Amino acid sequence: MPLVRRPSREEVAMPDNNDKWLTRQELADRLGLPVKTPAEWASKGTGPRYAKFGRHVQYRLSDVMDWEEHQFDPGKRHTA
């Protein structure tokens, strides 16, 4: 029987931070917005991708970061 390498305790306990799930309140806090704004985005089909777990809406941090990156208008440039 071949040996199978088991993951270390650190590998199991330390998930990638971009796979963390945020609540709607945590998303609003991250963006400095009222909590109703992400709720409105969800009803309009805009804003970051989300998942529903029962009645609870959760946003995966990696999806939020992708969405944030796409908010930059490529036609506008910051001049310092």
| Sheet of most strands | 3 strands, antiparallel
Radius of gyration: 18 Å
Distance between the termini: 64 Å
Strand content: 5-15%
Question: Per the principal axes of the C-alpha atoms, what is the gross shape?
Answer: extended
CATH topology of the domain at 16-65: Arc Repressor Mutant, subunit A
Strand segment tally: 3
Based on the coordinates given, report the CATH architecture of the domain at 16-65. Answer: Orthogonal Bundle
Into which percent range does the helicity of residues fall?
Answer: 25-40%
Structural class: alpha+beta
List the strand order in the largest sheet.
1-3-2
Q: Can you identify the CATH class of the domain at 16-65?
A: Mainly Alpha
How many helices in DSSP terms? 4
| Parts with pLDDT < 50 across at least 5 consecutive residues | none
Summed over residues and divided by their number, the pLDDT gives a mean of 84
Element order: H for helix, E for strand: HEHHEEH
Oligomerization state: single chain
